[in-house]
Amino acid sequence: MLINVPETVVADALRGMAAAHPELAVDVENRVVVRRDAPVAGQVALVSGGGSGHEPLHGGFVGPGMLSAACPGEVFTSPVPDQMVRAAAAVDSGAGVLFVVKNYTGDVLNFDMAAELAEDEGIQVAKVLVNDDVAVTDSLYTAGRRGTGATLFVEKIAGAAAQEGRPLEQVEALARRVNEGSRSFGVALSAVTTPAKGSPTFDLPAGELELGIGIHGEPGRERRPMMTSGEIAEAAVDAVLTDLTPRNPVLVLVNGMGATPLLELYGFNAEVQRVLGERGVAVARTLVGNYVTSLDMAGASVTLCEIDEDLLGLWDAPVRTPGLRWGM
Amino acid sequence: MLDAEFFRRWMTAAAASVDREADRLTALDSPIGDADHGSNLRRGFAAVAAALEKEAPGTPGAVLALAGRQLISTVGGASGPLYGTLLRRTGKALGDGAEVSTEQLAEALRTGVDAVRTLGGAAPGDKTMIDALVPAVDALGESFAAARAAAEEGAAATTPLRARKGRASYLGERSIGHRDPGATSAALLVAALEEAAGE
Fold it and tell me: Which residues in chain A touch residue B169, judged by CB atoms under 8 angstroms apart?
């Protein structure tokens, strides 16, 4: 691993991020990444956060048209309420703050505590929970569907709405609608190695793959002998479509988990587009790349989000962040 | 009777024990979690020990309240809010007396464990820290040694269970056969009570 010691990986990355992105105010000690021009008068502020190891999510999505601030936790560990309260106070213009929270027990508990503390400080806070992963089916007996690729759609579209000056309740409702219209499914070709452990978190022999993985090195639901890109695309798209029946065009995110080359991801996207065509799903926009990653895991996820004209306009709106940039 | 010094010893012993066992906790967290339970708790309890040394609160309740706040502010994940709430709510239930009885501690811990159940939504048998904490609180009326044994037994009994809460729950049937890291760390916390009592 290209690190100094496991204890400082997050702080080291933040120092490097600060050096590369002077347009962001990076508080390394308190672990908060903030748009330098925040608070922006009249605009709702978006704050997200989560464990580190999913870069560019979330810190790489801070900037005009997307997040106002991000709170990076330790690797695969939710940040603490102190970070979120500090971030909310730094970005609130008086128009309120929307917390974008991926549905994991730790993230939910810490953001809930933070929302209470921020409200005590007079900040109006709304929350949206992202839970798009169809691999978790038995939600009565689990912590519920996980938040994965749809987080990018929620942060981009709600961020554009906030940038337009829409009020908090509208931004919150849009974020919720994006989440409800989104579903994801992920596949791992290798396990993940966390800095703290230094060895793979589960044993996945070459020649096998895991279907239905999460983004924290947790194993999936099913293990199979290696499949072709086309077969994996069929499995992933069909898993998503068991839970989402789009009548409108969709946004497609073909997301790399960190260690799969873009060459393979584009090839995989060609197969995903083929399968979508065969299933009669119209595609409005496609994004291919490493956006919601899992350290050094090889593999990919597919996220579909059903959209309308309003959502498409917000998706196309200008955005300028380290991880996502167009139109400005 | 148990004074603030006893509770400080409890937290210091817990910090030492978590530090010793951190690699084991992380190893347990690998097949059914995300391989960080040991390192996260080690960071949290080190902060607790440092804060107690600096501030030296004068009552049992204040010691646990400070320890709980430190865990919430430093651990993250689910364990931070859950262990933090356990200690804060137990501390609050102890009131502001300079000394408390073992019975009062058992009663207060029950309040703390109930708060954890409400926050995390876990019931006994869900393969969580609750599976060690509930039997420990039940046995605390007898002795610290009995509480330790009950917590240890409860943690060991999580192995055949299917996880219904937390990250292990995503594995469904595949979580069976692995001992729960949260129940294991909870048993360490209970064992530290016995150590603090010098039994």
Answer: 141-143
> Could you tell me if B117 and B130 are in contact, meaning their C-beta atoms sit under 8 angstroms apart?
yes
A138 φ, ψ (degrees, to nearest 5)? -95, 60
The structure tokens listed for B83 are: 């262990």
Which range marks the domain in which residue B20 is found?
Answer: 2-197
pLDDT (tens digit, 9 = 90+) per residue, A112-138? Answer: 999 989 999 999 999 999 999 998 876
Please state whether the peptide bond connecting residue A216 to the residue before it is cis, i.e. omega within 30 degrees of 0: no
> What ipTM was estimated for this complex?
0.84
Q: Which of A78, A136, A143 sits opposite B165 (nearest CB)?
A: A143
Domains (range + CATH), chain A: 9-167 (3.40.50.10440), 182-312 (3.30.1180.20)
The partner residue sitting opposite B30, judged by closest CB among A79, A143, A202, is A202
B109 pLDDT higher than 90: yes
Count structural domains, chain B. Answer: 1
| DSSP tag of B175 | G
CB contact under 8 A, A197 and B35: yes
Are A1 and A195 contacting, i.e. CB atoms less than 8 angstroms apart? yes
- Predicted structure pTM score: 0.91
CATH number at residue B181: 1.25.40.340
Question: Strands B2-3 and B99-100: what pairing?
Answer: antiparallel
> Do B74 and A80 lie within an 8 Å CB cutoff?
yes
pLDDT at B199: 61
To test the contact with chain A by mutation, choose from B32, B36, B161 the residue with the greatest count of A C-beta atoms within 10 A, namely B36
- Determine the longest span between alpha carbons in chain A, in angstroms: 55
Task: Return phi, psi of residue B38, to 5°.
Answer: -65, -50
